[in-house]
Structures are given as structure tokens and as C-alpha cells.
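This entry is listed below:
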Amino acid sequence: MSIGSTIKRLRREKDITQEQLADYLGITSRAVSQWECDRTAPDISQIPILCNVLHVSADVLLGIDVEQKEKRINDLLAEAKKQWELGYNREGEKILRAAHKEYPNNHKIMSDLMSCVWKSRNEPERTDEYDTLTQEVISLGERILAECTDIEIRNNAIQLLCYTYPELNQSEKAIELANQMPNRSLTREHLLSHIYRGTKRFDMFRTELHLTLNEIYHLLLYNNAPLDDKKRPYTNEEMIEIHKKHLAIMDIIFEDGNFGFYHQQMGWTNISLAEYYMRTGKNEEAVACLKTAKKHSIEADTVCQPTDTYTCLLFRGMEIGGMTHNISQNDCLHQLMVMEDKVFDPIRETPEFKEIEEELKKYARHH
């Protein structure tokens, strides 16, 4: 349907005469008649006023199939998400860049592109692009905050801007944004766990526990950055004890050894613990940790399925779900790459180390 036909239909539905519409727009009724006969078309500057008068969006006025448009956008977003969940950030990025070009004002596309770029700029082959990609993250985030009213999309932009601003020595901007966010007791999961009753409440409490376990992992193992005096708060020996605490917590939660999604986390913790053992000269302990990590890596890559369920007391019957990878390697390949670090040179030629490598190679691959 032409724009003239659409204007005619909408005008009649609103019981507005050509003369009235012309008066609203400050033009002649003949001009309106010309539009409706498809002899001429409204100037682009008149589109917003027409939309307001006829109470429709520009998509409707211009004859754009809104449902088809939304379906295409959702399909593009779903395909991009599928790619980056498998670790193919670059493929997801390509899809989102094309989608952004096709729909430059869609804030959900901007948000997902911002997330994808933020992740992929850390890939080794993108070193030369890092600064450019960082600026793109900032640009997309600031545009979202200037234009978008959707809370979830805005919060994602705020989160990534808070991570990115400090890299550009703009911590004050990050602090200002962070202070706009609610405290921990106002999260969606926390509030819903106190609203729901029955089974929904039980499930929401378990979801909150699931998220808390991931926070514990990061708060324990990644809290050793230099302080104001440039010294780290924990020694290598103390970091070994902290890693042990994390493993002990996980063993308590998953008392039956069915770690599911957390096989990846257990593997990474053991790999990191092996590095600390090497730095303190405890080579045998390091080898033991690498062996344990190998078991978790292989389990994560070959056994765990999204529809499998946990069997431990606290998560019994809960689906494991899919693992999201921020890197393009599976867990076996990731462990192999970490083991290339020179810290492992003193044990590299030992039979135990080589055996671990050979076993991991059987399953190592890119996603």
C-alpha cells in the first residue's frame, strides 16, 4: 500500500477531513488530495507531524511490515547469540554489524553489538584493533544512554561502560554511572525470590544461589590486584590457600561430584592453582592440579549436556544449561594454551606433563 493510500485510510479511520488534516499541517487541502491520489508525497519533514496527528508510528505510515521487521531483527539477534555462545565472537560480530547497518536505530542490536565487541577485542589477533574497538564500545554505550529508555538495555550499556571507561583513564565517568545503579538487594533475582511463592520461589532462590557461586569464584580468585602501595594483598602461598577454599566450597555444594556447568570453573581453578604451585616450587602439587584440571576440562567438553540435571542436594533436578564461552577454544584447548606458559617449563619434559598434554589434545578444538 502506498503512503498516499495509507494516509487516506488512517484519516478516515480518525474521522478527519482533508481540510482538517491540511489545517493541522499548515498546508492546503489540495496538497493532501494530491498525496492521497499518489500524485505527490509528503516531505520528509512532515512525517513526524503526520504520525502525531494520525496516532501511528512512522513504520505504519510508511507501510513497513512491523511484525516482519521485528521477526527479522529477532532472528538476527538469535543467530548472533548462538555464534558467540559457542565462542565464535567474530562471526557473531559480523552478523550484528550487518544488522546494525540495516537497522541503525535499533537499541537491542546496538546493545548486543556493544557486548560482542567488548568481548572480542581481547582476542590475540585483534591487538592492533584494540583501541579502535574500545572507542566503539564507548560510542555505542553513550548513544544507548542518550537515546534508549529500555531499562535492561541501558543497564547493559552502563555495565560495559563502567568496565571500559577506566581503561581510558575516565574512572570518574564510570563511578558516576555505577552510583546510578541499585545495590545488591535490589537485583531482579533477589526481589523475585521474595515475591514468588511455592515452586517459583524455590526455583528463584536456587537461581540466586547459582549466580552467587559464580560471584564467589570471581571475588575469591581475582581479588589480588596491586593496592595503592603497588603491593599485592596476598602472597603466592596465600593465593594457594584461597584457591583451596574455592575448591572446598564447590566440593561441599556438589557433594556427589556432579559439577555440571561448574566443571569448567573447577578446571580453571585447578589450572590457576597449578601456576601458583609452580611459582612456589611445588612441582608435584602442580602436576596433580593439572591432572585434576584435565578431568574437569574433558568432562566439560565431552560429557556435559544442557539438558542434563544436577543430582546434588541443593541443585537436584535443575538443568545444567548451556555453557557460554567468552573464548573461541573449548576447555581442553584452553588448558593446553595455559600450559604453554613458561612457568611450567621445569616440568614440561616430564612423563606426567606430556601425558596430560596428549590426553587433552584428543579433545582440544575451537568451537
